[in-house]
Write a structure and sequence with these properties.
Layout: H1 18-42, H2 48-76, H3 95-103, H4 109-133, H5 137-169, H6 173-178, H7 185-202, H8 207-212, H9 232-256, H10 260-289
Helix pairs in contact: 1-2, 1-3, 2-4, 4-5, 5-9, 7-9, 9-10
Transmembrane segments: 6-26
Protein name: Secreted protein
Keywords: Membrane, Transmembrane, Transmembrane helix
């Protein structure tokens, strides 16, 4: 997906009136609603999971527009006119990003939700900058409300993203409980490392495949005990299951994060865990084709 620098969200000048602030907010939401709605309309039945996400996002933005219009009428007595927009409105929902997801054959509901999370994060950063440079107290107060709403909405979207990831990978808490897997990430990391090491010991020829896929394999230690007796396929399935569960745990941690550093750290762990899971799956598939 095309990268969009957060620096492009920096306001070019302070917002000096509440009506100008509402003009910006409405412009941002109307563009997002148009972009999501247009993409949903262009997707066919074969892409219905992604289309449903776009339709939901478009409906959310339409609802936001209606709420903003009502709040603007109450606060200012009228709706903004085009002349009230103080400067060029930043593109927080870049067309190119939405088009890439729309046309990608690999796009999933998770991909679409993840894109929307980034869009709301940009909105939070944008309103934070508006607050920082504003000199009018009424503008600051209104912008603070917009920033808080963007943060809260981003958290809701992250929850939807996590649910989509679980559905995509068929991972649920019930399944993990039935398999008696621990919910401690640290313990699961240790168990997963042991599984991967055991995999390489039971099938020495697989070691190179695992390492080439980017999975860390512990080096054999001279004189160490023989590996446990277990069918190799069972060990592989167990390793993949634990890798999937770890990804879910880290995404859960991100959803529960109470501050930005905690969120960034949890998302970093989740991204690394998902990449590791993909590598393990690639390794298992490569071995099975040999």
């Amino acid at each position: 997906m095309t990268r969009h620098s957060l620096l492009t969200t920096v306001p070019s000048a302070p917002v000096t009136s509440v009506i100008a602030l509402f003009a910006l907010a409405l412009s941002l939401s109307r563009h997002a609603q148009l972009r999501y709605g247009d993409s949903a309309a262009r997707l066919g039945e074969d892409a219905w999971p992604v289309r449903c996400v776009f339709e939901t996002l478009a409906a959310r933005e339409q609802h936001r527009v209606e709420q903003l219009e009502a709040a603007c009428l109450q606060a200012c007595g009228r709706l903004p006119a085009p002349a009230d927009v103080p400067w060029c409105v930043p593109d927080l929902v870049p067309d190119q990003e939405v088009i890439e997801v729309q046309h990608s054959e690999l796009a999933t509901a998770y991909t679409a939700w993840a894109m929307a999370v980034q869009h709301r994060r940009r909105a939070f950063v944008f309103w934070s900058y508006v607050i920082a440079v504003a000199t009018d107290r009424a503008v600051q107060a209104a912008a603070e409300a917009f920033a808080h709403e963007a943060l809260s909405d981003g958290n809701r979207l992250r929850h939807e993203r996590r649910l989509a990831w679980r559905a995509q990978h068929d991972i649920t808490r019930k399944e993990s409980a039935e398999r008696s897997e621990p919910e401690s990430a640290a313990l699961l990391e240790s168990l997963l490392q042991r599984d991967v090491t055991l995999w390489s010991q039971l099938a020495p020829d697989d070691r190179a495949v695992l390492e080439s896929a980017g999975v860390r394999v512990a080096a054999p230690v001279a004189g160490e005990a023989q590996p446990e007796t277990a069918p190799l396929d069972d060990v592989k399935r167990r390793a993949l299951r634990r890798a999937e569960l770890l990804s879910t745990l880290y995404l859960d941690d991100a959803d529960r994060a109470l501050d930005q550093p905690s969120l960034d750290f949890a998302q970093k762990l989740a991204a690394e865990s998902i990449a590791r899971l993909a590598s393990l799956r690639q390794a298992a598939e490569a071995v099975s084709r040999r």
